[in-house]
Task: inverse folding
């Protein structure tokens, strides 16, 4: 008796091999497709992130420009009053009778920080 080679022969074996090859090809194509889709999504996310960073930088620059412009438009703070001139003004008020000796002394002490 002659022995048949091991494995499936004939039409059934060919159909089985074809199914295995087709299944493997489908799996490989699906994997490649998912990989390409993942890379495309990563690139889109990176682009969106970069655009977001640029928009934030532009907004910060605009806010800085507005703040600088506002600061430039605000009037300078008034100079601190000259203590000698203030005491002279108080002395004039005392001489006119507007302030008493006690009020003059209290205001003068306040100006001098005593």
Result:
């Amino acid at each position: 008796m002659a022995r048949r080679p091991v494995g499936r022969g004939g039409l059934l074996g060919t159909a089985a091999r074809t199914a295995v090859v087709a299944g493997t090809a489908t799996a490989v194509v699906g994997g490649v497709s998912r990989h390409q889709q993942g890379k495309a999504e990563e690139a889109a996310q990176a682009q969106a992130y970069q655009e977001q960073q640029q928009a934030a930088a532009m907004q910060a620059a605009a806010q800085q420009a507005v703040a600088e412009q506002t600061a430039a438009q605000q009037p300078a703070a008034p100079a601190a009053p000259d203590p000698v001139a203030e005491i002279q003004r108080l002395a004039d008020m005392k001489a006119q009778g507007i302030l008493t000796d006690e009020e003059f002394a209290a205001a003068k002490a306040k100006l001098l920080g005593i």
Notes: The longest helix spans residues 10-73.
